[in-house]
Amino acid sequence: MIKRKICVVITARPSYARVKTALYAIKNHPDLELQLVLAGSALLDRYGDASKVIEADGFKVIEKIYNVLEGEAPGIMAKITGLAIMELSTTFQNLKPDLVVTIADRFETIATSIAASYQNIPLAHIQGGEVTGNIDEKVRHANTKLADIHLVASEDARKRVIRLGESERYVINTGCPSMDLAKEVLENSNFDFNPLIKYGGVGSEIKWHDGYVVVMQHPVTTELDATKKDIEATLNAIYELNIPTFWFWPNVDAGSDSLSKGIRAFREKHQAKNIHYFKNMEPIDFLKLIKNSKCLIGNSSVGIRESAFLGIPVVNIGTRQHGRQRAKSVIDCNHDKDQIKSSVNAQLKHGSYEPEFIYGNGLAGQKIAATLATIDLIFHKTITY
After folding, report:
1. What confidence tens digit (pLDDT) does each residue in 239-263 have?
2. What is the Cα–Cα distance from 37 to 5, expressed in whole angstroms?
3. Strand 4-10 to strand 32-39: parallel, antiparallel, or no bridges (unpaired)?
4. Are the C-beta atoms of residues 74 and 254 closer than 8 Å to each other?
5. Total structural domains within the chain
6. Of 66, 72, 239, 378, which is most buried, counting CB atoms within 10 Å of its CB?
7. Are 11 and 150 contained in the same domain?
8. Could you tell me the pTM of the whole model?
């Protein structure tokens, strides 16, 4: 039997954790052949170079596409996407996949969808149908309309994709593959590594053993003028709370340079003794880090998805996750120093929450591989109403 060639394109560091278990399941499925392509910030050291972790996990990267440009204006994101369309079009011509997989809602993912659908290659989209703030909202739903097969993470998302005019037959609630990793950590959350020794990073040698918080804050591409002010509010709140803090550098989006400059300026001015900074971590290590933290702070989707599964107290700041289905473990607040401080203190007082399985039960990878192996492949569709 000829195996179906499944080409998965990863364009950014966070996307790997989103699909890691699905990659393993595709790789090990007797009827599937994995073609793994990396592009964009997933290949850059200053954003954590996910390729090193991916290859260490045993995956063969069949193609690497370098398409990131310097600068943070919105026009740069458009040019990065344009370059990716050109390069991925050639890649797909050469690899001749039976199906291409695009992931979630990062701005570069639309390049994968365009390059595949314009060449009549069936396209599967993972994690469509959700609601977010930022440019991600437009990109996610554009991916949905270009995709032929929809592997959604929740029942709420499934209903939304169907309302967008997609055939129920091709909208499958698999859950989110990152919940598979969260399930593994929930079953064994033993903190078996020292993050300062294993990952280095920069900043103070914080005394984290008696408790710490984690911060992940990214720019909001629809609110670029406020980027510097927003990051300063969070930095000052964390500084005044004086709790040991592991802080992760932002994604590559419009506004990321301003946000990074704000962090560097703060470091030079305050030399905060309670903050240590990282670029990236292996997915399981990262989940163990946040599972053992007192609180996750910022505007990352990790605070909405994995944290719900793990019962982690979350302070979600601003509009980046606006409208996304969330657990009881999340407190929302504005980019205001005092609001952030009071929200963090409330979560510290509360402690851990009961897990909520909004985005799947931890078996998504196997469901995705099984679906891709058996579903009828199409590359043409019409709206259902």
Report:
1. 999 999 999 998 777 778 888 889 9
2. 13
3. parallel
4. yes
5. 2
6. 72
7. yes
8. 0.90
